[in-house]
Amino acid sequence: MTQSTPGPVGRFHSGRVAEGRPQALDAWRVTTDDAEAAARVAGLLGGRPQPNEGGEALAHEVLTKAETVRVLLEGPDAVASHMVLRGSKGIVHRCDGLEFLSPEEKKGRPCGCPPLLADRKLAAREGRGPSPSISLTFRIAAEPSLGEFRFMSGSWQLAVQLADLTDALERVDGPAVCDLALELVVLTTKAGRGVCYRKPVVTVLGSSGTVAPQSPPPAQSAPAPVPPPRRRRTRPTPEPAVLDPAVPEPTAPESTVPPSPEASHSVSVDAALLRRAAEVLGTDGPEETVAAALSEIVAGRQRTAELVRLREQVGRIAAIAGQALQGRDS
Ligand SMILES: [Zn+2]
Fold it and tell me: What are the φ and ψ backbone dihedral angles of 159, each rounded to 5 degrees?
């Protein structure tokens, strides 16, 4: 369906930039140039409007309390995606995974991307191949008249879902009611570390006539898809692939002080450090690496605390034993 509206009223983000570094968030962040829309979003999703200092040109941002937002998607056209590799001089490779989409002289020719997802991810991680660039256009189901919002994502996990998503959207007559969620993922790495992070997930619920437009209450807990064998309270970690293409990536590869897990609700990393950490930790992806590193920090603290407790107990046992020996000797 064609809309005569001039572009989206605002954007959804799973992260922001703070002090030049990307941060992942555990609830949706909305940016807009429209002060009234910002106020309405805050009313619907929690949080309050504030001047946007999180990285984009839009004037206002709302750090909402919602990890799941009920939205309306107008058919498969609400989803657009391609694969893109950017270099220092702009786009180097833009394709649909099989053929080039641009520039014009290469369009339609085989692009040479490997067929397997794992190989694509590896190529992208090493800067040789493109990453997903996904755009979702939707309205907030509780107040569609606010206008269209957009969510841009580079998440491989969202990219993998897209075929099913567009199929599901095709099957719904009219606008589809969907839940757009920042889903908590808890898993164990191959090295046996418990990690968690958030990934964007779209669930098609049905047509607007059959599904309530209200978002679920913000306090609802996200189901963990993988039963956590050693569940630790780690902070949500950034998934660099989810960053908005519009967000400037920090270029200076200066070292990063590992953030304290208690210090804030989000953490930041730099790419060079992340690659090194992946080698050391033997992890499989940036999100795993960061989460594993954080788990190590948390585990380290727990071990230190346990060691202190043990030392105290040993000291007490030694004192009791000492007294007992003294009593026997006298
Ligand atoms: Zn390609």
Answer: -60, -40
pLDDT score recorded for residue 60: 96
Burial of 104 (0-12, 13-18, 19+ CB in 10 A): exposed
Higher pLDDT, 223 or 263: 223
Q: Which candidate, 287, 11, 302, 280, places its Cα nearest to that of 158?
A: 287
Which residue is associated with the tokens 């969907």? 178
Measured CA angle at 92 (ends 29, 284), to 5 deg: 60
Angle between helices 156-171 and 117-125 (to 10 degrees): 130
- The pLDDT tens digits of the residues spanning 173-198 come to 899 999 999 998 888 888 888 888 88
Q: How far apart are the first and last CA of the chain?
A: 96
Instruction: State in Å: Cα 130 to ligand 1 middle.
Output: 6
DSSP string covering 254-266: ---PPPPTTT-S-
Ligand 1 center–CA 304 separation, angstroms: 48
Q: Distance from the CA of 80 to the center of ligand 1, in angstroms?
A: 16
Pull the structure tokens for residue 51: 């001047």
What is the sign, positive or negative, of the torsion defined by CA atoms of 4, 69, 58, 85? Answer: negative
CA distance 270 to 286: 10
Closest CA to 30 of 183, 187, 191, 138: 138
Distance between Cα 24 and ligand 1 center (Å): 27
- Which is nearest to 245 in space by CA: 91, 140, 69? 91
Other C-beta atoms within 10 Å of 119: how many? 12
